[in-house]
C-alpha cells in the first residue's frame, strides 16, 4: 500500500468508472478510515509497485496494440470490506495518432447511471505514458512491461454536495489475445476504501471511426 501524497507517482490505466460516492465514501467510512490510518501506515510500506513483481506468462500488453479499436469492459465496484455494491458495462473506442492515444469510454451502471471518460495517453519515455482525463487530478503515469500495465493516478469523485480525491492503483494483465483483467485499488490517506474488478475485451472485427484531426 502506498503512503505518499495523492499526486500521481507512477501509473491504471484507463477504464475506471467513478462510483459517485454511493455506499463508497460515506462520512462514516471516511471517519473509520482516518481512525485506522495511523495503525495502517505503521504496518504498510511506502513506494509504488514494481513491474517485475507483476510478471505473468501471457501476451505482451503493449498499450498501442491492445487498446486500439473497439473494446468493452465489464466489472463490479466493491467497498472497503470487499462487498459488491455496483456493477457496470462500458464501450470503449480507442484511436492513436502520432503516437498519442485517445480512449473514449461510455459507462452504464446497473442503476441506470451513465458516465463518460476520455483518456489521453501520451508517450513519455520507453514503456511509459502520461495519462490525463477530465476527472483525473493532474497527470497519471502508466508503465508497461511484458503482460502487465500499471497506471497510478488521482481520481476526483463527485459526491452529492462535494468532491473527494482518491488515489487509484490500476493493475492490468493480458491473459489472452483479446482479454485483459484489471484490478483498481482505491485509497484515501493511505487506507483502502474500495476497489474495482473488471475484464476488458477487444473486438477486432468491430470497426470504429477515428477523428483524423
Task: Explain what you see.
The chain has 213 residues and is mostly beta strands. The protein has one domain (27-43, 60-202): Calycin beta-barrel core domain (Lipocalin, Beta Barrel). Helices cover 9% and strands 51% of the residues. The protein contains 3 helices and 10 strands. The protein has helices spanning 27-35, 37-43, 63-66, and strands spanning 69-79, 84-97, 100-109, 114-125, 128-132, 136-145, 148-158, 163-176, 179-188, 191-202. A 10-stranded antiparallel barrel has the order 1-2-3-4-5-6-7-8-9-10. Strand 4 (114-125) and strand 5 form a beta hairpin. The radius of gyration is 17 Å and the shape is globular. The model is unreliable at 1-23 and 27-47 (pLDDT under 50).
H/E series, N to C? HHHEEEEEEEEEE
As laid out across the biggest beta sheet, the strand order is 1-2-3-4-5-6-7-8-9-10
Structural class comes to mainly beta
The percent range for helix content is under 10%
CATH overall fold name:
Lipocalin
Mean pLDDT: 80
Radius of gyration based on Cα positions = 17 Å
Low-confidence stretches: 1-23, 27-47
CATH architecture group name: Beta Barrel
The percentage of residues in β strands lies in over 45%
How many beta strands in the DSSP annotation? 10
Terminal Cα span: 40 Å
